[in-house]
Model the fold of this input.
Amino acid sequence: MRIPCLVLVSLLAFSPGLLPASASGQVCTDLNGTFRFLTNTSPTLSTNGPVYNNRLVVANADGTVTFSVDPGSQDPLPAGLTLDPQSGVITGIAVNPGNDDVTFRANDGTQITTRLVHFSINASGGGGNGDSGLVNPVFPDGMVGVAYSYTPTPDGDGPFIFGGSDLPDGLTVNGATAELSGTPSAAGTFFMTLTVVDQSPGEQNIGATLVPITIFPSGSSFAWVTQALNNGEVGTPFCDQYVVENAAGNVTYGAAGLPAGLVLDTATGAVTGTPTEGGTFLVVLTANDGTSTITTNLQMVIAGSSIHNFHWVYLGIPAALENTLYDRNPPIVVAAEGAVGAITYAATGLPDGMNYDATTGELSGTPAAAGEYPVTFTATDSSNSEVITLDYNFIVLPATGGDVGEIITNLWITRAKLTLGTDGSESLRFSAIYNADRRTGVRFDPASDTFRARLGSHVLEVAPGGCTGTVPDQSCSFASARGVLPIERVKLVPDKQTATWSTSKDTIAETVPNILSVTVVIGGDSYHLPLRFDAKGRFKPALGIDDTAFVVAQGSLLKRAPGTDAARLSLLLADPDLSYEAGVSTLRVRILDGTNVLVDRDFTALGGPKKQSVDSATGKTIFSFKTLKDLAVTNRAAMSFASRTGKMKLLLSALDLSGVPASEANLGVEVTIGSKVYTTHVTFFELSPGKYNLAIP
Done:
């Protein structure tokens, strides 16, 4: 399952009945605090749109929660708005201006709590937008290994651009037609976000719809009963119980991203503990019945204490489009409510071109490049300095839409190992290759830049000045002080494009087997990859990389004279959706200096026969191929690729590389296989006249 997040921009048009209930059956309910509302207020509405979306949030439930307007409420729900009793989502466009005081009721099966919420509705000030979304956004179930295709109907006047995120592995969204298609390769319940961009010349609008889709394991009806997570508060014992149905045998549960202080019992699915940090947390659950694994992606809110209601008003963060202004009326905000005093906002990790307003929480700007950007949002209550966080992968899609599978991560995990067991004695170890701009004055500067590696809820961070070395911008290392636990170590070698990090004598909340997301920040560059770990905490590249990763690991250029130049590249590519057919699938390579094309060669006709088999360790289909001999006079190409390891060799000869800059050259490398285009940027250094490689001189 690809994580994160929300796709394209703006009006979240949730459909009643599509969101999950607010809690599952819990354990130890005599200890888990007072059942209460966290919701305090409602954002201002307008009678001329855009579509209003808000969600009632409760904490410390003892069972599945249902929501309603209390019979004793002073005012009914404003006309034009609807409340989904299962999810607590309120959506619609208000009909009449004015002020309404609505008392809501939440019932967890054993107790009832109420909350008065004030609605202020203006007669103007909205975007004036019409509908934009999907008509009847209910998607049929699918099954692993069985071809799937469904095209929803957009609501609006078009023309449209479509997008999607949090899709099941093997499925893609067509940016022009909205068709969801492919052959699913992972089972579970996936809460997809599908977006419709209704463009001019008609009425312009952008809307997104949260849509659940269930993919069953091959030949099985094994599925999740749990459709949502309980919410809690810092300092109060927490209880929840995850549930599945139609299991073939004993079930083993897994979780990634649980807040600090919570522990999952992998044998029973019970979650207990006491949260130690507030915020909104994105959690991925897995369950294995001895035959199949199912996954689901959900969110959890943890309030700062038992007396505070401070929490993010969060139903997903709109994604952006590359080189497109991220803007609307009213503005796009990532905001919180329930603070005692004024709220101050901050964010780290946003892409170049994006801004986050410290007072309003408004996101704005024009992102320069498509990608997944690990961002940490923080909100601070000025009255008591209470801080809540939201870790999120901010999405920037290509201008043509599509889905997150269009985004290429230029990070390759060469080694990853988790050793789990007793708290205080657990460990992790990672090694990676990354591509970034390493030119003088641009590459990672340990004196002023931060290194940060996150695995689920576990974070290892080296602040500026912490990584030291003789020539620190070529190689630096960090080790935690003697006697300090956990023991942390980091080594960055920009000279070789490598990073390693490890902890020992640690406590790691994640469980295995599982899909765990790793996010890495190296100065101004951010990377995100979901990785598959087995029951022993082992990871196997390339088949264990659950998204698209593409890097140049080694390379050299020879610039002598036009028509005699050459390039030799060793690349690594992982893509769960990659397919290849000899002589049919496009094969093409381009090398660029900015927008200046240095090499462009289509060698589709040279595609050699595919050797296909099944990997014994993972059960995945693997293939390899190499090209036929190239008889071209110029721009000759030779290529080999093996999907099992991700290793790709590319030899280019009879080139004209006269456009390669002297001394340092940060070049784009673009490889096309079939309909997929893989891109990265890598810096070459001229070590002697006309001879370039990746080592920093």
Remarks:
- Residues 289 and 318 are 35 Å apart (CA to CA).
